[in-house]
Specification:
This protein has 154 residues and is mainly alpha-helical. The chain contains six helices and two strands; from the N terminus they run ααααββαα. The chain has a two-stranded antiparallel ribbon with strand order 1-2. The relative contact order is 0.10.
């Protein structure tokens, strides 16, 4: 039995084909990432830790939810799980008595860095056949797509 073709329908618009490929890559990468984590760290947990590393901590849960395009309830659940593991601290907002602020702990930064180190060899293997210049160009073009989609979300 032959494997079904992974080619898009010939009538699919290029933008759809591009985003479909990115979605499939995300699904495959998510499964690989989670399979390699020995302590059950899920990609949404890592994504939140990574976001705090990238943009700095002290953000509100609402700002994090907005940045990650997730419902506030999903962020609240993720924060509770990360806080229970000592990877983040959620503190009252000193400027808004009802609000909260999220801080990455030293353990959270170490766990984020460990997750990257754990998955790095598998990712390197996955792209081993790609030319470095072509990879850099692909990253630059994907960044443009991301920035365009980010601007369009309003």
């Amino acid at each position: 039995m032959t494997k079904p073709s992974a080619q898009p329908a010939p009538t699919d618009p290029p933008a759809f084909v591009l985003l479909n490929e990115i979605g499939i890559i995300e699904q495959l990468a998510r499964a690989r990432f989670e399979a390699l984590q020995t302590d059950g760290l899920l990609l949404p947990h890592f994504t939140l830790l990574n976001h705090l590393v990238r943009v700095g901590d002290g953000r509100s849960p609402v700002a994090i939810a907005r940045a990650l395009q997730l419902a506030k309830g999903a962020i609240t659940n993720t924060l509770q799980r990360l806080e229970a593991r000592g990877l983040v601290r959620v503190e009252p907002d000193p400027e808004d008595g009802r609000g909260k602020r999220v801080f990455l702990t030293a353990a959270g930064r170490r766990r984020r860095d460990a997750a990257v180190a754990i998955v790095a060899p598998a990712l390197a293997e996955a792209i081993a056949g790609l030319d470095a210049a072509a990879l850099a160009e692909t990253i630059a073009r994907l960044r443009l797509v991301r920035e365009s989609l980010d601007r369009a979300r309003g």
